[in-house]
Specification:
135 residues, mainly alpha
Length: 135
């Protein structure tokens, strides 16, 4: 059964947020750091595409977006990708200390993953309510 246009487009906004975050830098020199900073380039300083987290999230949300536009209902997949992405990006954010800190791209990606998880969880809740009222 095909879903409405609203249901097809709902997961696209969090997916766009995730893609925007992945395309932004994930690591930067701490603006409050005083003293010398070693001249080193960490993966993620250019964009999140330099990291396995970013590539995997880009592929996952791209696939979810295409399938959502095709009318497939992927509530659990949205929830799993959102929670899994939030855990991976959250771990990445917590792992940086010292002269280098997470850049805005990591935070934007985290927000997008949390939004995707919320959309997936909300759609599961709505679907369960509909099946209970029908039965």
């Amino acid at each position: 059964m095909f879903s409405s246009l609203r249901d097809r487009l709902l997961p696209l906004f969090p997916s766009f947020v995730v893609v925007a975050g992945v395309l932004m830098p994930w690591v930067q020199v701490d603006p409050n750091h005083e003293g010398p900073v070693i001249a080193i380039y960490y993966p993620g300083m250019g964009s999140g595409l330099e990291l396995p987290h970013g590539v995997a999230l880009l592929v996952a949300v791209g696939g979810l977006s295409v399938l959502s536009l095709a009318g497939r209902r992927l509530r659990r997949a949205e929830l799993v990708v959102g929670v899994g992405g939030a855990v991976a990006v959250g771990w990445f954010i917590l792992s940086w200390q010292g002269a280098f800190v997470p850049a805005p791209g990591a935070w934007v990606t985290l927000v997008g993953c949390l939004l995707l998880a919320a959309v997936g969880a909300g759609r599961i809740t709505v679907a369960r309510r509909k099946t209970k009222t029908v039965a």
